[in-house]
Specification:
The complex is a heterodimer. Chain A is an all-alpha fold. Chain A contains 13 helices and four strands. In chain A, the strands form two sheets. A two-stranded antiparallel ribbon of chain A has the order 1-2. Classes of the chains: A mainly alpha, B alpha/beta.
């Protein structure tokens, strides 16, 4: 496990330089945060000794409050899917700011191909296309979404790889362009009332299933395949990667395409879960996805980080969000606290890295 | 010879632009469902009239961009301006810019902070948010009383906290209870914001449910959040017959949820009516006619009994 978290670009990992893998640190932080909320539940008088994570009222068969366990991960699963892509882009030394607006645009387009003809026996009041686009098999909207994602990702990647403009600028342009698409598609009108088959994709705990399944898939790809080795190599030292014979440009396009397709798939799950697509969807998702990756130990300078780290980073978000509601923290303070926690986590990680470097 | 052609061309350009009334519209945000209906209300009414042109701009929720748009409208010589303010406390500068140029200005939907000191050629067209939350809360109280649920425990879902409507609609709930207009005793368990969003409301409701506390009603500041709460409760296996859920806006999605027996109360705000009303006021002001400075388009309570009347309105 230890030697997988380091994007060493093919270099051998030196065990003496790091006491334990980064994921353990994040896991400990996660436990500490849960501990803080448990303690608050006992200390705060209005909480009446409720437990954050454990079942104290005998509502469930297990010792855990199962409803809490579920929401902690369910509420971060969709942004988590995007974070899997952001992780790969950042490891390769880039950044993708366009994911949030891409979710909005993809959701609008996908939902337009997922509508049902009749709503409560009446024609669909939000129909985008004619009858030909009604009650299509569920694979159609999914493929349309993935194709749209691939196209956007190819544009992002090609701009970055072949014109040499910074990823920040290229994806900032796409950030605006994609939000434009989502508004233009129906001139701001929401698209609602999908088929039952489409609604099943994101119902219940399905978002969590997709998140974890995709996490396993991309963990394997990053750790065991040439794709992963090249991604880390490019992020660690692009010139060295090029000289060692990697087609850096083509690989970058591939990484951005994968990230955009993951964001488009997140849009499929999001619009299915909500049974609607709205032009404003996905606001700030790119930033939360990047924050999840960074909290999970992905280095913004590239070459370092892992999928399991990002999954844990997402869990930190889920626990904090759920914990705030649990202690009934006033809505005004929630964003302030969230901002401090994100910055604090990265500062801690930086200190830890510097200490690790000195020890070596 | 050439010069005459150019002069004739310029003259004809000038004359056509002088014949048509041009109204500049600055909307706070294009990708908001309700504001889209309002925007379409302006556009459709303008299309139906002869010689009225509207130019609609998106301020993208940015106060500075909106002021720039207004100054641009003034510079390009529009006959009147309609503003749907991004920030209701940042309207003084807009009023001043239009007043200095002598261009009539109509605020629509969101009440500007200087509503009581507007100059003569400016007006405000909206619905009174004191009605919306009040209608919603009283109807929910009545349903709870009919069920015999007394005292009743409730959750409150608030819209974006920087938004006047969210603040007022939440205040309405408190006012109804404080004034003794609720037929049952209300015990509020918690109030949180879900930022008008269905997805955030789903997460918030699921978080509330995981505490396992008993509750009887959810009062949401808008329909999207009410629907999110319903989806979360259904996913948790709660029968929608046991919980009273109310929203505001009477959107198509909300009416479908009401038809399915999930949503109990919503309130219709006549977005298209506000848009049309704002255009009327702007046209009258540009012709120098008198207009009431506050034009209120009433809110309407929507329940399963009368929802059929609203299916084609929003």
């Amino acid at each position: 496990m230890a030697d997988t978290t380091q994007g060493t670009g093919g270099l051998i990992y030196d065990k003496s330089k790091r006491a334990w893998p980064n994921e353990i640190n994040i896991f400990i932080a996660l436990i500490l945060i849960i501990g803080v909320f448990e303690a608050l539940g006992q200390i705060l008088p209005y909480m009446q000794g409720q437990s954050f994570l454990f079942d104290t009222s005998g509502r469930f068969d297990s010792i855990f409050n199962e409803a809490r366990l579920k929401i902690v991960i369910l509420q971060v699963a969709i942004i988590g899917i995007i974070a899997l892509g952001s992780t790969q882009v950042i490891i390769s030394g880039g950044i993708d700011l366009s994911a949030g607006p891409l979710v909005g645009a993809a959701a609008m387009i996908v939902m337009s191909f997922a509508q049902t003809e009749l709503v409560n026996g009446n024609p669909n009041p939000k129909a985008v296309f004619g009858l030909w686009a009604m009650d299509l098999p569920v694979i159609v909207p999914v493929l349309v979404g993935l194709a749209f994602g691939a196209l956007i990702g190819a544009i992002n990647g090609s701009l970055i790889a072949y014109t040499g403009i910074p990823p920040f600028i290229a994806t900032l342009g796409m950030f605006l362009f994609a939000r434009g698409i989502s508004r233009w598609w129906t001139e701001g009108q929401p698209v609602s009332f999908p088929t039952e088959g489409f609604a099943a994709l994101g119902s219940g705990m399905m978002p969590v299933f997709w998140f974890l399944a995709l996490a396993v898939l991309f963990h394997v790809l990053l750790r065991y395949t040439l794709y992963g080795k090249r991604t880390y190599a490019i992020g660690s030292n692009e010139d060295a990667a090029r000289m060692s014979g990697i087609n850096v440009k083509r690989h970058k396009v591939l990484v951005y395409m994968i990230a955009a397709m993951l964001a488009a798939f997140a849009a499929v799950v999001l619009s299915s879960k909500n049974l609607t697509a709205q032009a404003g969807m996905g606001q700030f998702y790119e930033l939360y996805a990047i924050a999840m990756a960074v909290i999970g130990g992905v280095s913004l300078t590239g070459g370092r980080g892992s999928i399991p780290g990002t999954v844990l980073g997402a869990m930190v978000f889920g626990v904090i969000q759920s914990g705030f509601t649990y202690v009934k923290l006033d809505a005004y303070y929630q964003l302030m606290a969230m901002g401090m926690i994100i910055v604090g986590a990265v500062v801690l990680d930086k200190w830890r890295q510097q200490r690790g470097a000195k020890m070596g | 010879m050439k010069k005459t052609f150019i002069a004739a061309g310029v003259a004809s350009l000038l004359s056509t632009s002088a014949m048509a009334e041009t109204i500049g519209v600055s909307m706070a945000l294009f990708d908001d469902n309700f504001l889209t209906v309002l925007r379409n209300g302006i556009q459709e009414q303008a299309d139906a009239m002869d010689g009225v042109e509207v130019q609609i701009e998106d301020a993208q929720n940015d106060v500075a961009r909106q002021l720039d748009q207004i100054n641009n409208f003034v510079a390009s010589g529009v006959d009147a301006i309609i503003v749907n303010p991004v920030d209701t406390s940042a309207t003084e500068a807009m009023t001043a810019a239009a007043e200095a140029a002598g261009v009539p200005l109509v605020y629509v939907n969101r009440q500007p902070i200087n509503v009581d000191t507007l100059p003569d050629n400016q007006a405000f067209v909206a619905s009174n948010e004191e009605e919306s939350g009040t209608l919603e809360t009283i109807e929910i109280c009545d349903i709870l009383a009919e069920q015999g649920t007394d005292p009743a425990k409730i959750y409150v879902m608030m819209g974006e906290l920087s938004n006047q409507a969210a603040v007022q609609r939440t205040q309405d709930i408190d006012d109804v209870i404080a004034a003794g207009n609720c037929k049952v005793e209300i015990q509020e368990i918690d109030r949180q914001t879900a930022n008008w969003s269905r997805d955030q409301a789903q997460n918030l409701m699921t978080n509330w449910l995981s505490s396992g506390e008993e509750f009887h009603a959810v009062i949401a500041n808008n329909d999207e959040m009410a629907i999110g709460a319903i989806q979360a409760m259904k996913a948790a296996g709660i029968s929608m017959d046991d919980v009273v859920v109310g929203g505001i806006d009477a959107t198509q999605d909300a009416l479908a949820a009401m038809a399915a027996g999930d949503l109990d109360v919503t309130v219709f705000q006549n977005a298209a009516g506000q848009g049309g009303g704002a255009l009327d006021a702007a046209l009258k002001l540009s012709k120098g006619e008198d207009v009431d400075q506050k034009v209120y388009i009433p809110f309407e309570l929507v329940t399963p009994d009368n929802m059929a009347d609203y299916t084609s309105k929003n």
